[in-house]
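User: Predict the structure for this protein chain, please.
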Amino acid sequence: MFGFLLKSFAIIFLFVSVTLSGIYVYLFNQTGKPAETHPFFAHTSKRPLVIAHRGGAGIFPENTLYAFQESWKLGVDILEMDIWETADGKLVVFHDKTLNRTTDGEGNIGEKTLEEIKKLNAAFKFSKDGGQTFPLREQKISVPTLEEVFKALPNARFNIEMKPESPTIAASLCNLIREHNLRDKVIAASVSQSNLDNFRRECSEVATSASFSEVLSFFTYYKTGTGEITARKDFAANTKK
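Assistant: Here is the predicted structure, written as structure tokens:
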């Protein structure tokens, strides 16, 4: 019995050792170099940046043109927002998959046409006192298209998250950015790796955030020290040329 346990332990230990060695060898052989600073970051100051999440959710009705304009007046550095594709292929600024939480409508936003969405009040459920009053219901604030936001705030900087995993959303976003000449004023983001990959192919001149897997790789390089090793390898290779 003892011999069986000892043999099992040895096999497990060998398996773990080989796996960890393989991971280390893989990381050791990953090479890279510092990326050039993108123009999006050229005007960032040394102070922390103020980013209005969803245009200032909680202070203003989230992801509305009203919120973006009011936050920009307050002097924020960047406007963060989320985009979805409508059933007829338009990009609208909205956070949730469904309309239920913030509007007077219901159902999936991706299954509605732009005309249907525009009939809704995007601030219908906005309240600053826990639902006792709803001060903006009479203003009929609509769900904005991304193009409306670009036209209203041509000098702003934007952090735009592509919400649904979609084969077409990256190209649509890229086209709008180019059309409004905002290449240096937008950083694109998504939790979907395929969205980011598609956007980088379509719009290589526009900055993007890192994906979850990319952040994990960076963290792993940092914690294992392989980032420093690969940097030294690159430096040595370059100095020999």
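The radius of gyration is 24 Å.
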